[in-house]
Amino acid sequence: MEGIAVTAADPGTVPVAVSEHARRQFQLRADALHLTPRVEDAWRQAHAIPGGDWLRGERARYDPTTRCVFPVRDGEIRTAIYAPTAKPAIRAAVRLAGWRP
Q1: How many structural domains comprise the chain?
Q2: Which of 29, 31, 42, 89 could form a disulfide with 82 if both were Cys (CB 3.0 to 4.6 A apart)?
Q3: Structural domain range at position 45
Q4: Does 6 map to a domain?
């Protein structure tokens, strides 16, 4: 697992690790891999979205370039969820944050 450092552009982001499962799912599910080829890049440019019953973790972020949601549990990105085909609760969280899944 590789950690992601805090960036000056997003001081609210805390360091997280990336699971191998998340890396595999990102490669299978993400749009625009030619623009954002790595989970780390997508995470850095992603925006916080509200949690809820769908989120089994501390927080989640949505990257509009790849259209992926990244849930974090125990300081690790656990998977990459493709928002357009995600469960309704996940799509609703993306919309509530002001984005189109």
Answers
A1: 1
A2: 29
A3: 13-96
A4: no
Q: Which neighbouring-strand residues pair with 25?
A: none
Nearest-CA neighbor of 43 among 29, 26, 55, 21? 26
Using only C-alpha atoms, what is the Rg of the chain? 12
Pair 61, 48: CB distance under 8 Å? yes
Is the pLDDT reported for residue 2 higher than 70? Answer: no
Q: 47 with 99: CB under 8 angstroms? A: yes
83 in a structural domain: yes
Burial class (CB in 10 A: 0-12, 13-18, 19+), 73: middle
CA angle at residue 12 from 99 to 94, to 5 degrees? 15
Residue type, 78: R
d(CA 45, CA 34): 15
What digits encode the pLDDT tens for the residues 23-49? 999 999 999 999 999 999 999 999 999
- Is residue 84 included in any domain, yes or no? yes
Enter the pTM of the model.
0.84
